[in-house]
TrEMBL record:
SMART domains xref list: HTH_XRE
Family annotation (Pfam families): HTH_31
All residue ranges annotated as the HTH cro/C1-type domain in the record: 99-130
InterPro entries reported in the protein's UniProt record: Cro/C1-type_HTH, Lambda_DNA-bd_dom_sf, NE0471-like_N
One of the record's GO molecular function terms: DNA binding
Entry-linked PROSITE patterns: HTH_CROC1
Protein name, UniProt field: HTH cro/C1-type domain-containing protein
Amino acid sequence: MKRVPWPFGPKAIAAVEPLPEQTLAVSWADGSRSTISLAVWIESKGIHRLRNPELFAKAHVGEYGSTVAFLDDDLEIDSVHLQLLESEQRGAPLTPDGLRRWRERHGLTQAQAARELGVSPRQWQNYESGASFLPWTLALACAGWTAMRDRAA
């Protein structure tokens, strides 16, 4: 399979503002802004202390603008993972867990999802397990499939 170039490189974080419900408003150094929920990330990584609103409110830009840190830089998430979460929340899953959540959210089995997006069931299993690189084109196909389904509804 031909690999498609990664859609973005790590962006520097200029500022961060904690919002309710484990969400961050991120201002990037390039001038763009994002609102990113960390709720799924917090649960999937078992970082339950970040469910505490007082602790979450301590979010700040980490060293060199490459992370959002909590607890005096003891706990942090890097800018690449923030971008991955943002892409997933916009409908383009770029991680094996994100792909699985996308499939489950749409009520598809692995075989159904593979058929809908034009890949073999075995390849889909490899994507979800992390055994195969998840290409950007598949993330775009997921976003397109979701948009077409939403438009038809």
